[in-house]
Specification:
Layout: H1 14-22, H2 26-33, H3 38-51, H4 55-62, H5 70-86, H6 90-101, H7 109-124, H8 128-139, H9 144-160, H10 164-180, H11 186-202, H12 206-218, H13 226-242, H14 246-259, H15 263-279, H16 283-299, H17 311-323, H18 325-336, H19 352-368, H20 372-388, H21 392-406, H22 410-418, H23 426-436, E1 439-441, H24 447-457, H25 462-469, H26 473-487, H27 492-499, E2 506-508
Antiparallel strand pairs: 1-2
Length: 511
């Protein structure tokens, strides 16, 4: 039997609720829910909870659904199936959605919604052909919003297959559909815009980036879209940074801090500015932002978050490795104690880029802490991942780190090729400096300083070096400071990282 689900219900203005849902006006949705009876309220609340990714709430509310008309049971099955699938109970989720589809027919709004959730669950299970088939059903819908959702699913499949340009194309087609929708679904527009902005942060997609900025500026950013508004603001600031527009980048990161939906995200925003300040020579401001991030990070619990926010712990370790080795080690240990991977929603924890982000920050921190072997291994792993995805500027950073660790100048040439699309970025300036720096053999270091180097490599403190060599602590401090300048490093740990390799190191001439 085929039914039409979306019938008008006395006391509940379904059309107004759907309009508020599409506008991401979730407070208005809550007000309207109060006008419905218990069953209507449960279904509408579940629909809202799906949008807000409160899947456990949906399962709790709909698992014991009372006897109801067939139309309501079909809607309940679609919503509960979507929630179960999103919490990885794929079998139960698919069974409920298929049961609902037995009672639905093309033309029903719920029919297309059921196929969207069916496609999403198939994608989560890596059943890409089935996901494509379900998305194709939606592409035949008369509603542009449904066609946009189908394009978004197809973009996920392209991501899994490593077809980044196709992913970009599908997302742009999704935005095209929403542009012609009489009542565009802003939730899905924000979803497509978020992923495009993320890709524009990573890849030289300038035309796409301009479209992202244009749509972003025109979007009605309701409170229901707070997370997407924040994240896209941050991504656009990162784009400005890569283009060498550092003042605009600082302003963007500052705006993102004001929009941050949690203190965990605030930590990452302070670190965005700390990294940019450090890399552009604003060391005092960098230290100030790092301290602000540190103070927040110490008072919040990191076990309660499972998204990109957790990467703040790695960036804290990376930055503190220059300043305070003990604190850096604490942050590395704290990150290792967390069980869930960073950014699991990229593809439910299976996307190798997640490991690339982790490996880069860990590698830099380990190098600064003097663990050259672990640092080089992590940076090499990150390089391989970013090379595979053509995340060129991230690969350039890995190559620059590997050059600093090994003094193998082939890494400088690789870094220069990768950063070519962003010639005005601080990364390009750093690579140019590394490429133009002259090198001299270690034997050119005066014997007195070479003795200090050997004892530093052995892990001796300044007081011990002074005692062994019969020099004053003041003399040892001065000689060590001169060695930092010669090797172009800023800490003892960084100096050890340069020296800790099986071949005779090359160092930069300072004149």
């Amino acid at each position: 039997m085929h039914i039409t689900v979306r019938q008008a219900r006395p006391g509940f203005d379904h059309d107004e609720f759907e309009s508020a849902l599409k506008a991401a006006d979730y407070e208005r949705c809550r007000d309207l829910i109060q006008a419905g009876d218990a069953l209507e309220g449960a279904l509408a609340s579940a629909r809202l909870a799906i949008r807000e990714r409160r899947f456990v709430d949906v399962i709790g509310a709909l698992s014991e659904f009372p006897a109801a008309p067939v139309a309501m049971r079909a809607e309940r099955d679609v919503l509960l199936g979507a929630a179960l699938g999103s919490t990885r109970d794929y079998v139960a989720g698919r069974r409920l959605i298929d049961r609902a589809l037995n009672d639905l027919a093309p033309g029903d709004p719920l029919y297309d919604e059921a196929f969207y959730h069916k496609a999403a669950i198939a994608w989560m299970q890596h059943e890409h052909r089935e996901a494509e088939d379900a998305a194709t059903v939606q592409l035949n819908s008369s509603d542009p919003n449904n066609r946009a959702r189908a394009r978004i699913v197809l973009s996920w499949i392209a991501l899994r297959r490593g077809e980044v340009l196709r992913q970009v194309d599908e997302l742009q087609k999704a935005l095209d559909e929403l542009d012609v929708a009489p009542e565009p679904d802003q939730y899905f527009r924000a979803n497509a815009l978020f992923t495009l902005a993320l890709l524009c942060r990573e890849l030289p997609l300038r035309d796409v980036a301009e479209r992202v900025r244009s749509i972003f500026d025109a979007m009605p950013w309701t409170p229901g879209l707070q997370l997407a508004h924040f994240q896209i603001t941050r991504f656009i600031a990162a784009m400005e940074e890569l283009e060498g527009n550092e003042l605009a980048a600082f302003a963007g990161f500052k705006k993102a801090t004001r929009l941050a939906p949690s203190e965990h995200w605030s930590v990452l925003c302070f670190l965005d500015r700390a990294l940019l300040a450090k890399n552009t020579g604003e060391t005092a401001f960098a230290a100030e932002q790092l301290q602000d991030a540190h103070e927040i990070a110490q008072r919040v619990s990191w076990n309660e978050v499972t998204g990109e926010e957790r990467s703040a712990l790695l960036v804290l370790a990376e930055l503190f490795a220059y300043e305070n080795a003990a604190i850096a080690e604490q942050y590395l240990a704290r990150f290792r104690s967390l069980t869930a991977s960073v950014i699991p929603l990229l593809s439910y924890g299976t996307d190798p880029r997640v490991r690339g982000f982790e490996a880069y920050s860990q590698g830099v921190a380990w190098l600064r802490l003097g663990d050259a072997g672990e640092g080089k291994a992590a940076l090499t792993e990150a390089w391989d991942i970013f090379e595979d995805f053509n995340y060129a500027w991230r690969a350039a950073l890995c190559a620059l780190g590997l050059f600093e660790a090994t003094r193998d100048r082939r890494w400088v040439h690789r870094a220069a090729r990768k950063i070519d699309p962003w010639p005005r970025s601080w990364i390009a300036r750093r690579i140019a400096e590394a490429g133009s720096a002259a090198v001299v053999p270690l034997e050119r270091i005066p014997p007195a300083k070479r003795e200090v180097l050997e004892l530093v490599r052995a892990g001796r403190r300044n007081s011990e070096i002074a005692r062994v060599l019969g020099r004053s602590p003041h003399t040892v401090r001065n000689q060590l400071a001169q060695l930092f300048q010669t090797f172009n490093v800023k800490s003892r740990a960084e100096l050890v990282a340069v020296l800790s390799r099986p071949v005779v190191p090359l160092i930069r001439r300072t004149n």
